[in-house]
Design brief:
Layout (H helix, E strand, L loop, with lengths): L1 E5 L2 E5 L6 E6 L5 H11 L15 E9 L19 E9 L4 E5 L2 E2 L2 H11 E4 L4 H4 L5 H8 L3 H48 L5 H13 L1 H17 L4 H15 L6 H28 L4 H21 L3 H17 L4 H45 L7 E8 L1 E7 L2 E3 L7 E8 L7 E2 H4 L2 H19 L3 E5 L7 H14 L4 E5 L3 H4 L4 E10 L2 E8 L2 H11 L6 H13 L4
Parallel strand pairs: 3-15, 3-16, 8-14, 14-15
Antiparallel strand pairs: 1-2, 1-4, 4-5, 5-6, 6-7, 9-12, 10-11, 12-13, 16-17
Helix pairs in contact: 4-14, 5-11, 5-12, 6-10, 7-9, 8-9, 10-11, 12-14, 14-15, 17-18
Length: 560
Amino acid sequence: MKVKNFALIREAEIEFAPGLNLITGETGAGKSLLIGALGAVLGDKIPPDSLRTGADKCIIEGEFGLSPDSPLLGLLEDDSNPSNTLIIRREIHRSGRSRSFINDSPASFRKLAEIGSILVELCGQHEHQTLLKTENHLEYLDRYAGLMPKRSEVADLYSQYRTLTAKLNRLKREQQKQLTRHDRIAFEIREIEAVNPQPGEYEKLQNEEKTLQHGESILQFCLQAERDLNTKPESVLDTLSGLLKELDTVSAFASELKSIQDDLQTAFASLEEAARSAVSFRTKFDFSPDRLENIRERLTELSRLKRKYGGSIEAVLAQLASLKSESQSFTSLEAEIDRVDRQLDEFHQLLIEKSKELSRLRAEAAPRLKRDMETAMSGLGFSYADFDARLDKTAGDDAEIDGQSLQLQPSGIDHCEIFISTNPGEPPLPLKDIASGGEISRIMLALKAVIAGRDKPGTLIFDEIDIGISGKIARKVGLKLLDASSAQQVLVITHLPQIASLPARHFSAVKIEADGRAVSRFIQLDDVDRVGEVSKLLTTGKSKGKVEEYARELLSGQDI
């Protein structure tokens, strides 16, 4: 691992051993910085102040050896690479920009986090608090039983099930909106067709209404015109007829009267035609109050359509054509709803089957976890341990399974809670209610150990997991860590001599002053250096010689 310009670390290069690695040092020397740098290269968020003051760029690089069956081998650009090495580099610039690379190819932080979860299992100094959260217990059981792939399968099915459920609900809402719209269109078509407006009809009826409104006056005028022009004694036509007869006699004596005679004859013909027109109009004119009422009712209907559909009869007719076109273009969603409904039912049944299978495998694994945990706890100084991962189903209305109404979840249909007793004769109680801080740390270590023995992450990291323990218990914890390191790489940050003295590659974190600034460094200790380092951790009250003698005794590993 290489770190440059990360907080107090100006430059560091550390090569961890395949088995157990120990990191000790005074508080503030930089032990946790090293873990933070490792987390950063594996996708963790980096605090804004992580870049060393005055530096332009921070570089963190981790080199990981992969086993032949590692799922990460596919990420290597050159599959023929005989070393099967994965090199992850992260750069943080002063501007705040951050870049990541996997074997020199750019990679997203999400990809780093995905890889990190496979490469490294971190158990921090506050990690034991997660053990007290019941919602984490089911995952512990699944990881122990190697059920995470099946759990992921259930989670994927659940996600698709929820997606299809949302799609079906959306389609049904759209169908309801469509049916409502279809009904509305059908009503409006019927409404317009019931009135059956015609082009130009409104204006024609308006004119007729005006005429009928003055019908009596019009009839009176026609009768008066007929009488005055023709029928009454000494009518206009009679008078003109008499004048024309006289002109016939006198015009022979004065040719100038000929033009007058012509004008009077023209006037007579026009007035005669006017009289006939007045008679004709009067006889045809339908001055019926019923007709006027009918016209007014029709105009009212047409006006209502105009107000609703566009302001003119032409707009009403255009709207009618548009409504008919929209009605004909409706595509029924029924077939799509049926298809999605069938698909949803298939996913629902498959989700139930996979959830039931996962539940069965969990029930089979729980007794094995009980056995392995009680054995592991015994090796960590528990004189008595009754461990129980209790499973029950989550009630709900998502599915009827074996006569129970259950809730389907991304994790399946189960709920798990760890119960434990560390005293003979006392029944197991919920873990969160009974265990002390030191006990929780040891239980977490036991759980990490039995889980790691199954799913084997590349590296296990324990950051001061030994808080709250000491003496013989601390040594037993150390031996458990040593045992875990026989199958995988283990990194341990510790302040206990009983753990720091285990056979391992040992690094000491020190803080020095260089060029007027604090710098964290990591020194690989040899056998002689380890005696001094372990001696610092011993607080026996004995002389320096006695302390170093005790340190050598611990380092000799006679109890291993």
